[in-house]
Amino acid sequence: MNDRILFNLLLISLSFCCCSAAVRTTKNEEIQKFTIQMIGYSPQKTDDYVAVSVEATPGYVVGFEPMAHADRVHHMLLYGCTMPASEQGFWRGMETCGWGGGSYILYAWARNAPNLVLPKDVAFSVGHEQDGIKYFVLQVHYAQPFAGEIHDFSGVTMHISQRKPMNLAAVMLFVSGTPIPPQLPAFQNNITCMFQSTTPIHPFAFRTHTHAMGRLVSAFFKHDGHWTKIGKRNPQWPQLFEAIPSKLTIGRGDQMSASCRFDSMDKNRTVNMGAMGVDEMCNFYMMFHYDAKLDNPYPQGAICAQDSPQLMKDYPVDGFELLPSRPELEHHAHQSKVPFGIVQEAIHETLGGVKLGQVAGLAFNNQKELLVFHRAERVWDANTFDNYNILLEKSPIKDPVILVISYQGNQTRVEKKLGGGKFYLPHGIYVDKDDNVYTTDVGSHTVSKWRIEGNELKNVWTTGESMLPGPDEKHFCKPTGITRIGDQLYVTDGYCNSRVVVLDLNGKRIQQFGLPGEEAGQFNLPHDIVSDSAGRILVTDRENGRVQHMTTQGHVIEEFKSTMFTNIYSAASHEDYVFMVPGRPIMGHESEGIAVFVGRSGTGLIEYAFGPATRGKREQMGPQFGQPHCLRVSPDGDTIFVGDIAEGKARLWQFKVQREESMTSMSSISIGWPSLAPADAKYNSFFVLLAIAILVLGAYCVRRRCRNLENGGSLFDKRVSRSNVGFKPLRTEETVGFISDGSESD
């Protein structure tokens, strides 16, 4: 991407967001959610460091919710700064905080580490005069450029309370700069500092970080000649903060030491310490708390970088001994050596000699074949229906409208051609676990169940009165999508009725939910419906520009909504990810083209986006999405198909997901902490692993002092949650009734 394209991207992103970051707030009692995200960046080089900043909101951070994946991001590091390194809101390079104030590590993520929840009565103070944190700065390190047209929106959501806790949290970083000689099975890097503050500190969690050569990182402190372990961990495991099971107190005059063990047997040169992938790092992060009534022991930020060999002579042997192998943890933490990407693999205008009509629906069968539901020669435009939603063309489409295709790479083969003479205006299609095929026909206002017998499509039942639309329990009006969960079918009905109709497997109505409107659970043209891996539904609320994530009873769990799109035509779900595609670009930004947006279930936020290889360039430079109508992800998650209904340019787009291994589900991890007692009491012995991720040291010192950023007013990404909002880790022409897919109003 050249500088001009990047500059245009930054202008658009900045127009959508607040200081190049997302500010998303939802309140539940005293908890507020505040999100800072990358701006849709595509890394330009190996070891690409970039940062965004936003003005801090006052409060007390009690939890962190990462939004990234190790396929795309090497690490994220969240700082609290008195001043950011740049006044631009986004900048390249390793600088984070500027001169003239403090630099405080708040959070970090890497290697697919889970959420972080702090113990009761412990929080990071932010946004107050006394804590020195006026800005949040998110640094993101990309190990390598993406393959394909990918734009990243990785970020962190902070859970902020307005209640001041008994204890304030901070992070101390132990870091070594000693180079590693080659051909050694075990080389130790050591770090030592003396604690000088009169305010005692209490370590309650730790995390370790090295690059590929690290085998162990440990830390101990010495009081009155006695060593006490803070923690030790294999840095090749998920780099989360691990809870310390007993209460520790470090006081004035105590010695704090850390050590990193490296294996350099496969190296033929000295490896320096540094931030690049070819370098190494030796980091131990100690998260501690102190009494909120006392002075901050590290008012400018806590860092230890001294090497004092004479003070390490009696360092405990346990601090050097390797931990037992845990292959399952190393697999979960694995960072791909293959650049992540979603690469345009093919654009199909014909399949098996059949010229595609408007590609309205897509579905996969149990043989992993793709069913393409297209309209052949029929086109939906402003003259297709009358003002009462009655189809003007009374004859069915004579040609086959369902093509069953197998594919290998970009090569396809039509296995069956079905449905000639049976459909009037195809829209949605779905195949269940028993290989039953379900369709919606907006022309005939019907929903049907079919069986494929040989090369014939046999009707099992049809519900709705053919060719007659209506709002009652016996009619549909331009039904759009259908899916099955358990023994029930869910139909989006659709262009006129703005509801979801629930059927049994025989086509009998059970219930319905939804009304026209913009509130949660209301719809403005529900255009598509799919289920997620947990048996919930995702309803594409087209003209409200959102995807509503709902229970099967119609209760809204969350919504995916963003200023980056104003409409959503179709959605698909694979593992924890939700894929969404608009059918029209934002007015005024048509030249930027249309992208597919991908979010994480449980966050309601966009994590990255992708599109055609030449997205944002003129059609003469390469094909663009015209009017994407349907989107589906293959069962293995490796291929993504997009059906396009643009007039004269009906196409089936095929994208290949490039990665070293399948997207691993970011399943939620239950986090528990010991109860926090007064300073002279003991911790409860109950503990569990806690979450965060890797930190790589961003520059502590930067080039210049910067002016204050002004906080913009628009939202970047927005989520509305109707679940319990306490921090929980994850587990149109005239009216809506007269909108067509192909009319100028669309």
Automatic annotation (TrEMBL):
Q: Which family does it belong to?
A: In the C-terminal section; belongs to the peptidyl-alpha-hydroxyglycine alpha-amidating lyase family.
Coiled coil ranges: none
Q: Which chemical reaction does it catalyze?
A: a [peptide]-C-terminal glycine + 2 L-ascorbate + O2 = a [peptide]-C-terminal (2S)-2-hydroxyglycine + 2 monodehydro-L-ascorbate radical + H2O; a [peptide]-C-terminal (2S)-2-hydroxyglycine = a [peptide]-C-terminal amide + glyoxylate
User: Which regions does the record annotate with the repeat NHL?
Assistant: 510-553
Please give the organism: Caenorhabditis remanei (Caenorhabditis vulgaris)
Co-factor binding details:
Binds 2 Cu(2+) ions per subunit.
- Kindly list the positions annotated as binding Cu(2+): H74, H75, H141, H209, H211, M281
Cofactor(s) for this UniProt protein: Zn(2+); Cu(2+)
Disulfide pattern: C193-C304, C260-C282
Specify the Copper type II ascorbate-dependent monooxygenase C-terminal domain's residue ranges.
169-306
- Could you identify this protein by its name? Peptidylglycine monooxygenase
Q: What is its main location?
A: secreted
A single GO cellular-component term on record = membrane
Please give the InterPro entries that the UniProt record associates with this protein: 6-blade_b-propeller_TolB-like, Cu2_ascorb_mOase-like_C, Cu2_ascorb_mOase_CS-2, Cu2_ascorb_mOase_N, Cu2_ascorb_mOase_N_sf, Cu2_monoox_C, NHL_repeat, PHM/PAL
Q: Where does Ca(2+) bind?
A: L689
Ranges for domain Copper type II ascorbate-dependent monooxygenase N-terminal: 53-145
Q: Where are the transmembrane segments?
A: 683-702
